[in-house]
Structure formats: C-alpha cells, structure tokens
Amino acid sequence: MKNFCRCWIVFYALLLSQWGWADPIETYCYTTSETRRPDLAQIMAANTPEVSLMIFQSMLPQASQSHDKSVFVDLLVLIAHHHILLEHSQKALFYLEQAKPFLDAVPESTRQDFDLLSLQWERQFAEH
After folding, report:
1. Which residue, 5, 31, 47, 59, shows the most beta carbons closer than 10 Å to its own?
2. Extents of the domains making up the chain
3. pLDDT for 25-78, tens place per residue?
4. Which residues of 8-28 are buried (b: 16+ CB within 10 A; e: fewer)?
C-alpha cells in the first residue's frame, strides 16, 4: 500500500508540475507560417546564385499556398532574377510570366521590382 501511495503522490506531483497559469500582465503571441517571412536578401547574400536559386525554388510550393501572394510573386521574381544572372533567358522569362497573373494582388514595390526585372530581361535577352 505504501508503494501505491507513493506512486499517486509522484503522479500528482508530475501532473501539477505541468500545470501553470498564464501571467495576465504579459502579452503572449505566436506566429503562424502565414505571418513568417524568410529573409530573402540574407539568403542571397549568404549563397551563390545557384544555391540561392535552389533554396528559392524549394520555397515555391509553400509560398504558392499562402493567402499573401506578395511572397509568392517575390519568390518568382527572385528566381527569374537568378536565372538572368545565370544567363538562362527562357527560364527567367517563364518565371516572369508565372508572376503576371498575381501582380494586381501585390504591393506597389513588388510590382516595381517585377517591372524592373522585366526591363532588364528585355535589355539583356530580347535583342539577341
């Protein structure tokens, strides 16, 4: 019987140790995958264009499912930019074309990035 009582005491001690009250003064918050944005500039700075390109392409499936299409368009534009750096004209054009349908749903700065990159593509590849 002593062992049984000890087991219950240990059980309740463990149970109560996991129980805690939230501090009403502190503000608690969390972020969802929808609100977290990767630092794309840091990825570019820390890697070669080839590695950055692979990282950005691996992010596309998750970004395409996001309600915030600016993340998706940012990635498409960055992928196109890296294909331009690597002189892959058709791949760059493909990703620019993929971004076009979403331009109405993104901030002006993202549209300007798209326009500048489209102009760069035209100057670099359309003349050839």
Report:
1. 59
2. 37-126
3. 544 444 454 456 677 888 777 888 899 899 999 999 998 998 888 989 999 999
4. eeeeeeeeeeeeeeeeeeeee
